[in-house]
Amino acid sequence: MIIILDVCVLLILTTGVVEGDTKVQTPLSYFRIMTPNWLRQHATFTGPYTVNPQQYIEIHSGAAFQLALQVELVAPNILTTTSCAVVAITISMDTELANSGVDHDPVIGISDGKSFVGFYISDKTNVAGNTPCLYLESDIVNKAQTNIKYTRFGPGVTSRDFSSEIKLQFKTCDNWGSCHTDHDQGFTKTTGYQRQLDLTNGLYLDIYRDDVEKYRIKYISVNVDTE
Questions:
Q1: What is the pLDDT of residue 204?
Q2: Is 111 within a domain?
Q3: How many angstroms separate the CA atoms of 127 and 142, rounded?
């Protein structure tokens, strides 16, 4: 068993063992708080960005459906095709910017580098008559989404302001995801996905632009466990 512990990360990884010709997958547990400064050092960005280390990281406009930010959560060849990853993501974004009228509909979720599953998060304008979270899945080609499938409508809410925290959960073996926001004292949407992630390719946190948009991220926390 390997245990790595510092102020930002707890990683417990018991490596796989081989019995005969079969690799037996053993549990993995990962927790990280991603501050603006940590993201600057470790995330992959597509397009320009600026950092206020104690406040936020601001991702500037880029092409629609383009990858804005990616973080490797589990490296390739750690998990197997039969692994079941349970992922919990909490992300706090600058609500002043999100509610100012700036186009602000991030697409947040997980991928294996080739396929993506997640949610489109509606801004103050688009949540009107719609839903705070829209299920979305896609293929990934050259750091951009293609063959996108998503729900256009869903249960509505009365509050319109962008959520101060967005909480996402995924269970890869069940092709299942959930999205929770602050709207109306708590809004939750659950969904199923058609795409099955191949975890042998690795597991990533992805944020995509829905359009030519700007985002300010205060922090992200991620927990990954395997069953």
A1: 98
A2: yes
A3: 30
pTM: 0.87
> Would residue 143 count as lying in a domain?
yes
* Separation CA 70–CA 104 (nearest Å): 18
Residue 3, in any domain of the structure: no
Give dist(CA 202, CA 36) in Å, integer: 23
CB 187 within 8 A of CB 132: yes
Residues in the chain: 227
Q: What values do phi and psi take at 152, rounded to 5?
A: -85, -25
Distance CA 107, CA 67 (A): 9
Name, in order, each residue with C-beta under 8 angstroms of 84's C-beta and a sequence gap of 6 or more: 171, 172, 173, 174, 226, 227
Number of domains into which the chain is organized: 1
CA separation, residue 96 to residues 100, 102, 162, 176 (Å): 6, 10, 9, 31
Please, where are the H alpha helices in 4-66?
Answer: 36-42
Within 8 A by CB and 6+ apart from 7, the residues are: none
CATH number at residue 60: 2.60.120.200
Q: How far apart are the first and last CA of the chain?
A: 17
Examine residue 11 and state whether it is found in any structural domain, yes or no: no
**Structural domain of residue 122, as residue ranges?**
33-226
Q: Which helix or strand (DSSP H or E) is residue 97 part of?
A: helix 95-98
pLDDT at 113 exceeding the cut of 60? yes
CB-based contacts of 12: which residues, under 8 Å, 6+ apart? Answer: 1, 2, 3, 27, 28, 29, 30
* pLDDT tens, residue by residue, 160-184: 777 889 999 999 999 999 999 988 8
